[in-house]
Amino acid sequence: MNALNSLLKRNLLGEIKLFNGLIDLMKPRVMSLVIFTCAVGLLTAPNQISMFDAIISISFVTLGAGAAGALNMWYEADLDKLMSRTCLRPIPTGKVNKSQALIFGLSLSLISIYGLYYFSNLLSAFILFFTIFFYVVVYTVWLKRRTPQNIVIGGAAGALPPVIGWTIATGNLSLEAISFFLIIFFWTPSHFWALSLYKAEDYRLAKIPMLPVISGVQNTKINILIYSLIMLPVLYLPYHIGFVGSFFALFCLPLTIYYNYICFDLYKDEKHKFNILKAKKVFSYSIIYLFAIFVLFLVDNFV
Length: 303
Prior knowledge:
Structural class: mainly alpha
Order of helices and strands: HHHHHHHHHHHHHH
């Protein structure tokens, strides 16, 4: 009896470990931003859909984001174990094996794409398919190990969730949806390059050609500053096309100018060095900054 109880307990612990590993494969922190930006795209669209349809549709987009994360970790398991930032992920720690990750990622992909098509529309499902494909095949498999511009081009995948939210509600693309895309697309490089500055040794060990590894610290800092400055005209676009009002512009301006300032502060450090606290400050604020912008989209829509 004791032996049976012990066996059942080990099996239960194994199942719990596997379940937790599968959840971690979906990159929950990334998923939370996907859910939020997708919801903003949906809620700010001119067409209204039922609460049930909105929740179901966003849930399938969430599963699609999780599928992309799982397939990314499946393919990069050999790199993840080399980097301090990723060595505790499910596959390097043995919570999940590569075959389980692959099956899980492919299954979630199929479920999410078909589910979004069934409960929403073909355009939304196609964009979700394209997002997963672009993140996994174009960014993870093709670009990441080949070019320091990997995060610039690959950032297109992360910029699509609010576009999907918009098309769930409207069934079509428009300048408003494109403005969402451009904001995240041009925000992504400065965000990730700030991270890569203080994780450069990780990338060097894993032989990933991130910008600081290939082009050096100074060039990376210049690029971070340039992309932060690009946010000013990009954030003017939704105001210019009448998507948002002066409330949005009034609050976005100081948020962006402060972002420009801390990126400039990072840039002006000694030529070939950087202050790790300043790089972390840019990275941390960039997350708050993007979140605040999308909150302002919501608030402006309802004031």
